[in-house]
Amino acid sequence: MTGLLICAALGVEARAVRRGLPPAGGAKVVSTGIGPRRAGRAAGLLGGRGAVAVVGFGGAADRSLLPGDVFVASEVRFGGRVYPCPSAPLLAGELARAGLPVRVGPLATCGHLVTGAERRRLAAEGVLAVDMETGPLARAAGGRPLAAVRVIVDTPRSPLLSASTVVNGHAARRTLGRLGPVLARWARACGPRTVLLAAPRSFCAGVERAIEIVELALDRYGPPVYVRKQIVHNRHVVEDLRRRGAVFVDELSEVPTGAMVIFSAHGVSPEVRAEAAGRGLNVIDATCPLVAKVHAEARRFAAAGRMIALIGHAGHEEVDGTLGEVPGSAVLVQSVRDVATLPAGRPVSYLMQTTLAQDEAREIAAAIRRRFPDATGPRQDDICYATTNRQVAVRAIAEEADVVIVFGSANSSNSQRLMEVAARDARAHLVDEPGDIALDWLAGARTIGLSAGASAPPALVGDVVTALRGLGEVRVEERRVAEETVRFSLPKELPS
Length: 496
Known about the structure:
alpha/beta; Rossmann fold; Cobalt-precorrin-4 Transmethylase, domain 1; 5-stranded mixed beta barrel; 18 helices; about 35% helix
């Protein structure tokens, strides 16, 4: 990025921000004067600088904003037009990591102080905060990266002309001094880039089925519908279903007798099924059919008197369910080293957790076959087709990318493995949402790869592409390695 211009209405605001800027950062701070007319005249100062940030004090329209909150505009409303600030989630995430209380939403620029009924009207229109200068500067910025950051001084509960104004103003000035380093990182992240999308990515058929099961159960039976464990390992999915009336529990003892409970996509052991039956619970099973296949294989091997080496990770719900299918007949194998500890004297078969990294699982399976030449495996590869496809796709983009961002929650095994596969060829990071992306990861990165684990909503990738467009021109290319047409039928308890 060629430079950063920071615009503040008041000299006190400009001085506060300037004090926090790195000495060799190349940023310029100017005072525009108060109000849209003066800001409009100052718009000529924007010149050829690549990134524009408008900062200073601001007022809250929404009652949930408090004095001292840092407000980042997602859009600026002025003169009947809306000027988007797409990079707001990235900037807000960086400010939050700096320890500042951050909110994101629409900002309105007005030609006067906003109070009373006008403040309430703007809040009813979805405006969270107001100022008097950003609009003309946003209009003049054109297509350049634009950020608008206001530290809240007055609110509906604490008006500007009140006893708290001086205290709030001093606190806001100190906060402005903390914005400089973050704005400098934002500017360094700005610039044109190419985004490579791995395909397939995001939801697989088993995840789509599990989510649909909860949604249909809520529609048919009404809330609350209880779900044992997370239906899939993704925070966004769980929070969305919780808002609709799903109640997530760790143990069946938390479910009222006779209530409806859904088993998660990761499967459960026969012991859990027996407990549910004993308590008279109405059960809908959302176990992924591919996990159910592993359970069936485990039972078949155990019935033949074979010891089962289950390749997987301790504590994962899928692993717990599979081990529970064949108590006393299965041993968990997490690494090649564990193969040496397997007891001898029994015929051996091996199975795999469906969300493992393909290369890692095959290496462990090869070690089992070396120690037990007669060992047998599953009829078909246990690793889910969707997990394999996503790993192949992310490897394809990692070879070309400076950095790879994988969307998925930290407790998602398939997302973790996806990030690890990408990390073999590029800098790779696992994030839950766009705000988790550190701006330093983007500085100097002109090719960014994006993927999402099989349990991560597809909208997250689109959201970050939009956010990146707020940092500069973006060219999007997709690298597709497979077409996925698999669909799984729903349980008999639900309409298809």
